[in-house]
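Now read the record:
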Amino acid sequence: MLEITCVVEDTIVPDSALRSEHGIAFYIKTPGGRLLFDTGESGDVLVHNAAHLHIDLSQIDALALSHAHLDHTGGVPDVLKRTRPMIPLYASPDIFRERFVRSLEQPVSYCLKLSRDELEQHVDLRLSADPVEIVPGVWTTGEITDRTSFEGRGNMHQIRVDGEWKPDPYRDDLSLVLETGDGLVVLLGCGHAGLLNILRQVKRHFDGDIIAIAGGTHLASATDAMLQQAIDELSTTYNRPRLYPNHCTGQRAVNALADAFGSQVQPCPPGTILTF
């Protein structure tokens, strides 16, 4: 059996002892190992929720990061205080590029707070643009290079190149693919590379039908036409998989997906456990 637990997410079930924050983290338990996918923004929420969910961070076998943004990597220092020394950390080779949230005010750094040298004191750093197996049956997608469909963009996400501000290319964005006996489960951090682009990469590189998609799809910024394209492709190409959208999906997109797919769409706040 494969088990996915949402540990950190933006929303919370009323009267829950768990906490929420803008960010995401998933704990994945398989017969072949245990791993953490992203760490939330603060570390405080992740540590609190993990304790309430009886997740022992000292026993995880690997850490994977979907991309560098702070709401996915802010908890890394707190996680590494609790893990075994030199566990493998999987991410994109572009994970250390400095990224910013840039509005009318001073740009704010919004990325992984540990340098490569600092990380390498605590983890076995495994950076790859190609799909990599983390534990048996759990893979990274690798870099999503074919982006012929819309991306999950934020207007204020920027990088600095030769002193000039440029839109963040999100080259570091990756997702996870989990192989089950019934098909593939796709787990997203933010989906900045674009939901449909990610699914097409999974279809190219992995055998089996996509039976479920969970995590942040970054459809909050999608136009009505983009949402309809996503709904059409999920219906025709992917045969209406189960959907567990959260984080950056946006309520408008969740409502549109629920209108199209009914009970196939379910919420995924902290404490949600998905089993396959």
Remarks:
- The two ends are 6 Å apart (CA to CA).
